[in-house]
Write a structure and sequence with these properties.
By secondary structure, this protein is an alpha+beta fold. It has 2 domains: 103 residues, no CATH class; 73 residues, no CATH class. Helix content is 43%, strand content 16%. The chain has 7 helices and 4 strands, in the order H-E-E-H-E-E-H-H-H-H-H. The strands form 2 sheets. A two-stranded antiparallel ribbon has the order 1-2. A hairpin with a 7-residue loop joins strand 3 and strand 4. Helix 3 crosses helix 4. The protein is elongated, with a radius of gyration of 27 Å. The N and C termini lie close together (9 Å). The C terminus is likely disordered. Pfam families: T6SS_VipA (PF05591). This is Type VI secretion system contractile sheath small subunit. It comes from Salmonella enterica.
């Protein structure tokens, strides 16, 4: 997300605040308006299930969090979720999910899938199939070869067990970076 570069966000940061609390005070016989600063504090446990025990609330310090330092603060807090869900991929037992979030982009479905091993494998396979489909577009010979591959189980097992070439791995990582 381009949070820091948005012109709309710049205007919002530099606009006068909407809440302005003033009161009249008489100092040495003259009235004067004094503006009180509007300060809002949020006391929340944002770490989720931290790996290390957090200090007591009385020992913690207030942090200024704004749009400019949000990702830095989030990385420092390192919110973490850890839970088990029914494994619908294999239908056997539970699937353990343990995710540490470091920035706002980590909330996207693709990033969540990358942080769960079983889902990451499926996402990688999906990406490779999308790349194959793009490559095959309009090439009848390639379509026939893939159909033959899908019909022959021994050929398919050989392909699955074959080690990935360096070019394939670089292509997948480049595609993943461009998708982000």
């Amino acid at each position: 997300m381009a949070i820091n570069n948005s012109a709309q966000k710049f205007i919002a940061r530099n606009r006068a605040p909407r809440v302005q609390i003033e009161y009249d005070v008489e100092i040495y016989g003259s009235e004067k308006k004094i503006e009180l600063p509007f300060v809002m504090a949020v006391l929340a446990d944002l770490a989720g299930k931290p790996r290390e025990e957090l200090p007591p609330v009385t020992d913690r310090k207030f942090l200024d969090i704004d749009i400019d330092n949000f990702n830095e603060r989030m990385k420092a807090i390192a919110p973490r979720v850890a839970f088990a869900v029914p494994n619908t991929l294999t239908g056997e037992g539970q699937l353990m999910v343990d995710i540490t979030l470091e920035n706002m982009d980590d909330f996207s479905p693709a990033q969540i899938a990358r942080k769960v091993d079983a889902l990451n494998q499926l996402l990688e396979a999906r990406t490779q199939l999308a790349n194959l489909q793009t490559y095959m577009d309009g090439k009848a010979g390639a379509e026939n070869l893939v159909n033959k591959l899908l019909q022959d189980p021994t050929l398919l097992k050989t392909l699955v067990n074959a080690p990935k070439s360096a070019a394939t791995q670089q292509g997948v990582s480049a595609d993943n970076e461009s998708a982000e």
